[in-house]
Amino acid sequence: MKKAILITTLLAALPLRAEVTFTKDVAPIIFNHCAECHRPGEAAPFTLLNYNDVRKRARLIVRVTEDRVMPPWHAEKGSFAFHGDRRLTEKQIDTLAQWMKAGAPEGDPAKLPRLPKFTAGWQLGKPDLIVKMTEPFPVPAEGRDIYRSFVVPLNLPKDKWLKAIEFRPGARSVVHHCLFSYDTTGEARRLDRGDRQPGFRRMRRQGRGVGSLGGWAVGGQPRELPADLAWHLPKAADLVLSMHYHPSGKPDRDQSSIGLYFTDQPPRTAFAGVQLPPAFGALSGVDIPAGNKAYKVTDSFTLPIAVEAFAISAHAHYLGKHLQMTATLPTGKQLNLLDIPDWDFSWQEQYQFRDFIKLPKGTRLDSMVVWDNSATNPNNPTVPPVRVRWGVESEDEMGSLTLLCRPAPGERYATLTTAYARHFAEVRTRTTREMAARVQGANGDRILDAFLRSNDRNRNGKIDLSEAPRWLKPSFDRADTNNDNALDTAELRTARNRLKLNR
């Protein structure tokens, strides 16, 4: 009896767990991690700005936060912190669950914290120059994804240094992503004039007079380049927007806008992107059998100079599953730069490190891209699964990771870019030799015939120049012995020792 009384007394002495309320506990979480998107004019489908907004969706909020679907942040915790990390802690997730189970009490309205001061309109402030697509582009309700490029004249009075680009989609429901580039050659205008619809179909290629300026994807937030970094934008440049549209079930029209932010301060040095594997995997022979749950491509590149990395991104399509890049220092220590174990094609962003990451000369960068082409992959657009190869359509696949970095003080930019260009060529040559070896075997003719059939989209019995895969085009003229801008079976067999051909 005395023992029972003692236990009761001890329990009574324990402090009661404070009631979890919206104003005291939940509002700070929602306002700081969710309201940025869940407010009028932004990407989310509903607002989360007050007690009633959150209360009526309490069960949904608990489910998606416990599953870590929301707030959207697909990068696992790595060796370095990122700007804008939206992940919730276990304690915050538990607080939301306790509140919902307690009946979602409001608490004292007088203690409600203020909403963060969100920037109205342009998130980076008023741009120095605002431009938009010259005319709306119609997106049908249904059908295949649309890849379309649009020329936006800038009419700059002189060369500019570009600090940031903010993209505002005109039709959020259909714009999946947009790549920015500039063109000083006039080619983009020529292609635009030759197409009856607004814009043109072919995606822009990199080369002399053409340069990349980054991009935007669903979920991406605009950020200035850090420190004194800036893009060089020539006076004669046209802006080219390479858009990816995904039909939403109802017809729409898009006329997206772009804000440009300039700086008068030239950077100390240019910066470069180290993409592994190169060309989004176009040179790596990506060929994913139906049913394969873990098709993997890896690539490595050793830094020829010391660099300072400031951002990293990843890209794949629907079958992408796991993307990772690590850095192994000359000491043997391994750093996790980016790890996305559950890829989501619908939510892509560039991850900017909070501080520059110093990587010494001799650091080895390793990338890994894993695709899941099984029937159990809920993101697989084709059921039952079919063989999938590299291509620009959403139903095709690609995959790579890109580390943005600048040379460390005293290092030469050209040393880095020359070494990477050599790596690019080595990847292409290695894959070419591997594929050439296949077509020398007993099944060589069968492989060549299958390659021709799979690329002969107009069914004329040849591979026209416009049908040739990207990696084949540098060798196309040499293989086209009769100069008819097409490769027939005989030409493919003659060139089999030199060409890399898909299986």
Q: Structural class from helices and strands?
A: alpha+beta
Which word captures the global form? globular
What would the CATH topology of the largest domain be?
Jelly Rolls
Looking across the biggest beta sheet, what order are the strands in? 1-10-4-7
Please mark out the parts with pLDDT under 50 across 5 or more consecutive residues, or reply none. 10-15
Total number of domains = 4
Give the strand content: 25-35%
If classified by CATH, what would the architecture of the largest domain be?
Sandwich
What does this protein look like?
This protein has 503 residues and is of the alpha+beta class. It folds into four domains: 18-111, no CATH class; 129-263, Sandwich (Jelly Rolls); 272-419, Jelly Rolls; 440-494, EF-hand (Recoverin, domain 1), CATH 1.10.238.10. The protein has helices at 2-13, 22-33, 51-55, 58-66, 90-101, 187-193, 413-439, 444-455, 473-479, 489-494, and strands at residues 129-132, 137-139, 146-153, 160-168, 175-183, 210-217, 231-233, 238-245, 252-254, 257-263, 272-276, 287-288, 295-302, 307-316, 320-328, 334-340, 351-359, 364-371, 388-389, 399-407, 463-464, 486-487. The strands form seven sheets. The protein has a four-stranded antiparallel beta sheet with strand order 1-10-4-7, with no helix packed on it. Strands 3-8-5-6 form a four-stranded antiparallel beta sheet, with helices on one face. It has a four-stranded antiparallel beta sheet with strand order 11-20-14-17, with helices on one face. A hairpin with a 5-residue loop joins β15 (320-328) and β16 (334-340). α2 crosses α5 and α4 runs antiparallel to α5. It is globular, with a radius of gyration of 26 Å. The relative contact order is 0.11.
